[in-house]
What we know:
It contains three helices and nine strands, in the order H-E-E-E-E-E-H-E-E-E-E-H. By secondary structure, it is α/β, with parallel strands linked by helices. It has two domains: 1-30; 33-205, ABC-type transport auxiliary lipoprotein component (Rossmann fold). Strands 1, 2, 3, 4, 5, 6, 7, 8 and 9 form a nine-stranded mixed beta sheet that branches.
Amino acid sequence: MTRRIFSCFCVSIYVWLVMLSGCGSRQAYNKKYYVLSTRRETKSIQDEKDSILEVRHFTIDSAFSGKGLVYRIGEFEYESDFYNELLVSPSAMITEKARAWLSESGLCKRVLDPGSQIDPTHIIEGNITAFYGDFSDKLSPAAVMEIRVFLLEMKTGKEPVIVFGKTYNISVAIESKSPGILVSALDRCLIKTLTNLEKDLAERLL
């Protein structure tokens, strides 16, 4: 009888410990998710336009392709934040923001998704080569974004021709390592990048 009571007591303790560890795990894995809120606020261009632009999915260097926010903490040292992530991959989010921005700019008659059956006159390809918070210098932390963009002109029966290419490297100073502040600064980086890209494309598409 005593042995049975002791066994029941041990089982109760084990169950209680498992429940505690489960609660701790849920708390430890309490993640936060962020999105970029980049939007074009100025008026659209009203010139006559015939260009039809396809914005292909931007590629991204593998070091920054995950959803977790990336911090540079030394000259060659980076870390990914497991608990603070973008809701979707940065390449997908930046591509969507770029496509929406250029669609609202009025530079083109239409801005297409890659799956469209309409033949474009031009194609934009992009490669995101930097997307992180730079905390290697504790006195001047910053959000860093670098995107390499190419504009291709499509001609019937001919191979696409690169008519424009440029790398946009933008950094925005931030006050702290707070994930929310970093995402807000990365958002401002993208706004500056797309503003500059729109100005450059205006000279070639209109």
